[in-house]
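Re: the multi-chain job from yesterday

Posting the exact lines I submitted so nobody has to dig through the queue logs.
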Amino acid sequence: MLVKENPVKPTAVNKEPVNTDYEVRSENAMCVNESTLDKPLVSNIKYALLGIFFGMVLVKAEVVSWFRIQEMFKLQSFHMYGIIGSAIVVGMISVWLIKRYNARSIEKEKIHLENKRFHKGQIYGGLIFGLGWAMTGACPGPLYALIGNGATVIIVALLSAVAGTWVYGRIRNKLPH
Amino acid sequence: MLEWFKQPWPWYIAGPLIGLTVPALLLLGNKTFGVSSSMRHICAITIPGKTPYFRYDWKKEAWNLFFVAGILVGGVIVALWFSNPAPVQVNPELSKELAAYGVTDYSKIAPADLFSWTSLFTLRGFLLIVVGGFLVGFGTRYAGGCTSGHAIMGISNLQLPSLIATCCFMIGGFVMTWLILPYILRL
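And the result, structure tokens for all chains:
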């Protein structure tokens, strides 16, 4: 996690509060925007296009199907293991290459990857998510893809997931981390 | 060509394509792959209240909302032009088990016997859709990521916490499928 230390000790002259926005955003988040470039909102269209591609793959490979998730957890099919496994292999090689060659983004920014710190939430939260994954047959990506694909009742599942996120945010300081 | 495109894609095509999303996001704008954070941003936009966890500049994470909106549109595009007309093919063992619970409709990618508006108002459907959805949202945020953020992005970046989280996702899924789901499906 990025720790921004204020080099100047707070004195009567320097009373400006330290901006902790980045720290707040980094808490329990996997994808924190590292970019320091100020860009107009329209520049985000490229992420929408990539999302379309990703969503299409999720549906076409039936990753979004409750049946496929059942087969995975019942060890009745290799399909999902093959998908997650090969995605990790390709991701790993890509990240290695990016680090090896100090690649920069198309905006010429140095690509930066944060290390994750271990906390108990990864165990408790992971187990809770696993229970929900086998029930809905969908992790968060497929929830969006299913709604688009016409399973409109999944809107309720997504709203419920947003509610779950909200409840977590409310009680997180009472939970073991 | 179009006929082939409409078939369900095999794992060795889909998996690498999903994996390529990782470098694509990094190269496009230094973004780390993840989906579940979008639900936190939705909270931050709509009902942050006084919760410090939701009080941050969500506009800096707007890219993530564009990304998930794209995922939804991807689902629409497949439904409109590339959907597979054949029923979902599943392992015969599974269809035998599911038949005992009255799950026999394979025409939709999400089983219509479980995930439909009529099913939502049954105890079984309510548990699977509403309670299941809640656990997905609560659990992913507590764990700090989901299948994309931890299992794919995190492990790709050789993060031990992500490997631990992924193992816990799987354990939770096995416990639900083998020990709890039979009772829910029987309802």
